[in-house]
Amino acid sequence: MMASSLLLAGCGGERKDVTSPDGNIQVAVSGTSLSDMSYTVSVGGKELIVPSALGVKTEKPMLGENVKISYSHADEVNEEWTQPWGENKRVVNNYNEMTVSVTDGDENEMAVRFRVFNDGVAFRYEWNLGESADTVVVTDELTQFGLPADGKSWSIAASADTYELPYRIMPIGEVSDANTPFTFRTEAGVYGSVHEAALYDYPEMTLKRNADGVLQAELSPLPNGVKAYVPAQFATPWRTIQIADKATGLINSAMILNLNEPSKIADTSWIKPQKYIGIWWGMHLGTQTWIQGPRHGATTENAIKYIDFAVANNIQGVLFEGWNKGWENWGGSQSFDYLAPYSDFDLERIAKYAKEKGVELWMHNETGGNLPEYEAVLDSALAFYQSLGIHTLKTGYAGGIANGGTHHSQATVRHYQKVVEACAAHEIMLDAHEPIKETGIRRTWPNMMTREGARGMEWNAWSDGNDSEYLCILPFTRLLSGPMDYTPGIFDIDYSRAKADKGRIEWNGPNAHCCIKTTLARQIANWVIIYSPLQMASDMIENYEGHPAFQFFRDFDADCDWSEAVAGEIGEYIAVVRRAGENYFLGAGTNGEKREIEIPLDFLKEGVSYTATVYADDEQSDDPETYKISTLTVTSADKITVRMNANGGQAITFMPAK
Ligand code: NOJ
Ligand code: CA
Predict the structure, then answer these.
(1) Does 265 share its domain with 410?
(2) How far apart are CA 466 and CA 471, in angstroms?
């Protein structure tokens, strides 16, 4: 690192900084060569990131002798683009750009491109080493993030294999390693989050405190310790620092998406956000099984029941896990057959029935981490699903990656991308579990709909579960990266009854606590709060049948046009509004504190009267399953008070009054 006053010798007069369009955020660069280049970030004239190193370490130096550094500034970009689906279908992309380019006498070039938006800073490394140059062997990344030590942070630990970890709340200075999005708030009240955008053909980046006590980028290694093998012309993923003056500002930012390339799928008419149900929760409770046997979930009979329920309840998709042979190997040899249904699951009949009823049948491919086996049949499996009229696939990587790899290395990032592109070729939408983190690639590959990548609902079935504070951290951390298939909406809050009825199997373990740690109203609110263009009602349909509160999901629309986080503090509470067509949906949730928040309805269309149907906690009751449904007529001039019990929430539909 170098002090910012030590600017380049011999390049006098060049501007070495770049400012956001609104002038609030500034990045300044200094250094005399590749090895001592550093950057600072300031917000409102105050330093947020102290001089921090830049650079990539490679096996052989990329540049020769006689390096020259030059700075170039591009014209401000201010454009609007649209996407087939998303929190917001219209997105504004507004930034200033500066490129710092280092060249040698042989015209090899290594550049750092900075983009400064009103809501954050991004930069990436780009190199061009000439046509005949060898593959570049990346051994480390030198990027540092010199954030103030006394700021507060919310993050999960760095791991090469999983994001399904509890959040840690701690001073930035005490974080020894972390995954991204790494969210923080400084003493001065600046909110921020470090992440990455457009992760292709490269390992994921985590943060690690280095010997100098600074958080530094750490790349997930390949089994031989090398970080990445990349071409001689290459651009790394963007390193991103979202910046906002309010916690909700982080959520309302589209910077990560803006750093991705436009869609590569020309015809997106087959890509459809949808609500779905599935044969799923029973397996996690242990009342049903993935393998064929007396409690097998994915039977033809159950499939027909689920399809009928979907038709009757305005639900577009149905997922069946445990439909294919191989589940008896899960956790052992990890070998699945992606083409062979169990004999009690008549796939062709079910596909035909779903088609007749206008329901999307989902496929599920659990790989257990056996990538070679999956890649070998990927194309034929996808072609088979396509021939059955299937447009949606959920994948899973629950298990160690074959051949000593990890989930987050360059090799596995390539695998995940291969599946995205193969699915696109077969007009299949993808929902990946145990995925690589989302970095906005959904803009370029809009069939990459949603993914897991955090502790989802399943953790409530067989561990100590996710509490309401966790649910108030998620929107400001993991969800900043993009949609999550959390699979919300369990109505049978105390599910010990289900277990007592049907018996339980051992794998639920001693920690299973038989209770969802929120109120029922909060489960409804999560359908709005936790954005996913494929949104699941994850309970078993018998728990929804005849349940008055299920009307919310019937009315809900997963294909929203516009969204805004209207209130929230990290780990405390959150309120999000989404519009789909003429209807609006509000979801609010609190942590372990009972809370009231006032929300102006100025997001509603002016001059229109709306019927608001409110799904609220029952203030008179401690029973998390009790709730109240009420209706009122409102306009954009009104304010509402959202009252929530501890661990509670509230959901509201606003529909133009008839
Ligand atoms: C873990 C996934 O997150 C879950 O949704 C799935 O049911 C199991 N793996 C089995 O594939
Ligand atoms: Ca999982």
Answers:
(1) yes
(2) 7
Q: Does 243 reside within a domain?
A: yes
CATH number at residue 641: 3.20.20.70
Query: Could you tell me if residue 574 is inside a domain?
Result: yes
Nearest alpha carbon, ligand 1 atom 3: 433
Tokens standing for residue 416: 């995940």
Q: Tens digits of per-residue pLDDT, 453-508?
A: 999 999 999 888 999 999 999 999 999 999 999 999 999 998 887 776 554 444 44
State the closest ligand 1 atom to the C-alpha of 487, by its place in the atom list counted from 1.
Answer: 5
Q: Do 429 and 532 belong to one domain?
A: no
| Ligand 1 centroid from CA 109, angstroms | 45
Interval 149-170 mean pLDDT: 98
Ligand 1 contact via 369 beta carbon (within 6 Å): no
In the reported structure, the alpha carbon of residue 398 is separated from the centroid of ligand 1 by a whole-number distance in angstroms of: 7
Q: Is residue 595 part of a domain?
A: yes
Whole-number Å distance, alpha carbon 453 to ligand 2 midpoint, is 7
Domain span at 364: 260-449
Give, using CA atoms, the residue closest to atom 1 of ligand 1.
398
pLDDT at 501: 59
Give the model's pLDDT for residue 496. Answer: 81
Rounded to the nearest 5 percent, the helix, strand and coil shares of the chain are 20, 35, 45
Q: Is residue 398 lining ligand 1, measured as CB closer than 6 Å?
A: yes
Strands (E) in 198-316, as ranges, are 205-209, 215-219, 228-230, 233-235, 238-244, 274-279
The per-residue pLDDT for 505 is 42
Under 8 Å between Cβ of 429 and 534: yes
| pLDDT score, position 53 | 97
Does pTM surpass 0.85? yes
Q: Which ligand is nearest to the CA of 434?
A: 2
Q: What is the mean pLDDT of residues 45-55?
A: 97
Regarding whether 225 and 320 lie in a shared domain, the answer is no
Q: Last residue of some domain: 235, 258, 281? A: 258
Please tell me the predicted confidence (pLDDT) of residue 321: 98
Q: Indicate the top mutation candidate among 367, 433, 450, 451 to test ligand 1's pocket, ranked by most ligand atoms within 8 A of CB.
A: 433
Give me the number of domains the chain comprises.
3
For ligand 1, atom 7, which residue shows the shortest CA distance? 280
- Measured from the Cα of 434, ligand 1's closest atom is 3
| 190 plus 130 within the same structural domain | yes
| Helices 410-425/371-387 angle, 10° precision | 10
The arithmetic mean of pLDDT across residues 316-333, rounded, is 95
User: Beta strands 360-366 and 392-396: pairing type?
Assistant: parallel
For the annotated catalytic residues, the residue numbers are 458
